Fold this protein.
Amino acid sequence: MSTVAYEIVDVFTDRPFSGNPLAVVLDAEHLDTAQMQTLAREFNLAETTFVLPPTDPAATYRVRIFTGSAELPFAGHPSVGTAVTLMRLGRFGPGRVVQECGAGLLPLDVTASGSATLTGATPRLGAPVDLGTLLEITGLTADDAAGDPRTAGCGLDWDFFPVRRSALAAVHLDPRAADRHGVTGVSVFAWADGVAHARVFVPGDAVWEDPATGSAALGLGVWLVGAGLLPADGVSSFRVHQGVEMKRPSVLDCTVTAVAGAATSATVSGHVYPVATGKITVPPFIG
């Protein structure tokens, strides 16, 4: 029976059993899509990545990213976690690498100490989101809201819902309401003095709440510039605390660059801590 090697790491943390866990499946070029999805369901984490040879000569490596139910074009904590893991295993040295994924070519800067900075894809500030819809999905009240919800992202869009700090612990997700309204990802956050405290939900997926979400942190920078809470020009830094309510505290350090009131680029940085290594049986081909 054939097997494939994997690593499990905790991302956006400098200590084990916090942050966001990630399974990194190595040398996955012999696996087909159905086998990758089966393995992602078996790991039962927010995401699993599969490392492949690049198809673009400008890329250092290629990844495919799966939740327990679907493939994603891009996600932040899998990108940061995979880059640091490959560096730690000696696949390349510290410095600039280029990841090929469904969202295209994305640069990462990896350090010898086990952290990485990811530059997101093109920022996008989307349409406003109906407040009543998000109140129904989160179980909050209008008094909990602290701004206008809106969609934003850098390769993967999220609905951003600003609330009072005390409201975060009161969120009770209603996945049926999310399904009725077609909401697939929402970041509920409180903002003050350059720091966001966030909870990020993926209704309907195998893991409904995420303890650290790099793509949402990137999109938050776009939202903050659009809302006038970060400067309209230049580079701004901010920090996101996430996962506290899940007892998996995470720290995401971010920057966003803006020109004339619009975000033009964003980065997210964090540490990666290795927690397990092993081999897993390759599922049989399907069909």
Q: What stands out?
A: The first helix runs from residue 33 to 43.
